[in-house]
C-alpha cells in the first residue's frame, strides 16, 4: 500500500464500507484499512478459475514496488532437494528466492527464512519485504522463498520447497543457531510444518520460529471461523454452512481426493502435532483475527508440551494486521526484531502471554497475563461458537463428511470439560 493512488482507492472504498455496513469496525481503523479489508475479503470469497483441458492458467505476478534506497534485493535460485519420507523425486527446476539485506548485513549476520502467506493458493516471495525491512536495517538478512502453490501443486510440494530453502542456507555456511524460520498466515503454518519435519527427521533445528496469524488447523474446526460480531471485520471470510467440495484452499493444498486423510497430518495442520522439542516460538495474532482460536490453541498445546512459546494478542487487530501501517504493526516489528536478536545470540527466552492495546493516541501498552487467562479466552470463544454455529461445532467434533474432527484439541488446550 505504498502507492498514493492505491491508498486513495482503499480510502474511497472505505467511505462506502463505513456508510453501508452495520459491522462495528474499531474506531482506530482508518478508511484505508476499511477499504483494504473489504476488498481482500471479497477477493478471497471468489472461486478460483477452473482448469482448461486439465491445465490451470499461468499466474500473473504483480509488480513489486521498488525497495527503499538503503535496502538491497538479490534474486537467487535455490536447488530443490529430496524430502526424505515424503518426496524422493523433486522437480529439477530450482526455486526462485530473494535475499533482503542492507549495508549493515554481512556473512556473520543472523538469517530469517521467510514463507509468504496466501492460503497456499496465492502469494509471492515479494510479500515478505515490508515485514523484514526493519530486520535488514538492524543487520539481519532474510531469504524469502517462492514456494509452489495449489491447486497446481499439492502437499508436500510447498513443504519440500521450504525444506530446500533451509538446506540452501546450511549449504551456504549459515549455522542453524543463526537461523530463524518465519512466515505469515499459510506461510506461518508452513514454517511450523517445516520445524516439525526437521525435528522428526533429525535435522538440526533453527534458533527460533516466529509466525504472524499462522494457519495451523486445516480441518475447519477453528471456533473463530464461525463467529460473527468482531470477526466480521476480518479480511478472512466466515466459512459457510455448506460449500462446494474442494473449493476451500485447504482441500486444494492437500489435494481434493486426499483432504480427508491428510487434514490432520501434523506437517499439514501443525495444531495436531503431539510431540515436544521445537525451538522458542513467537506467535502473533489479533482479537479480530479469524484464526485467533487456533493460534491460541496451538500456543497452549506447545506450552503444555514443554516448548517455549511467546504468544502476543493485539487488541482490535485482524488477520496479519502487519499489512497495515499502524502503531500495533510498528510495535510488532520491534518485538519481532527483539525476538530474532535474542534467539540468534543464544540468550534464554522465557514463555509469556502478552495482550497489547490499540490506542487512539499514545504508545501501545503491553500487558503480561497468565496462560490461565488465555485458556479462559479460548473457552469463551468455543462457547460463543457453540451458540452461533452449533452445526460447525458438531462437525468439528464428529469429523463427518471428511472435514472437521479437530474439536478435541481445542477442548484439551482450553482445559474445559465437554458436556
UniProtKB/TrEMBL annotation:
Record-linked InterPro entries: AB_hydrolase_3, AB_hydrolase_fold, GDXG_lipolytic_enzyme
Signal peptide (residue range): none
Name of the protein: Alpha/beta hydrolase fold-3 domain-containing protein
Alphabetical UniProt keywords: Hydrolase
Annotated Pfam families: Abhydrolase_3
MF terms in GO: hydrolase activity
Positions of the Alpha/beta hydrolase fold-3 domain: 112-322
Taxonomy, superkingdom: Eukaryota
Ranges where the record places region Disordered: 48-68
Keyword Hydrolase: yes
Keyword DNA repair appears in the UniProt entry: no
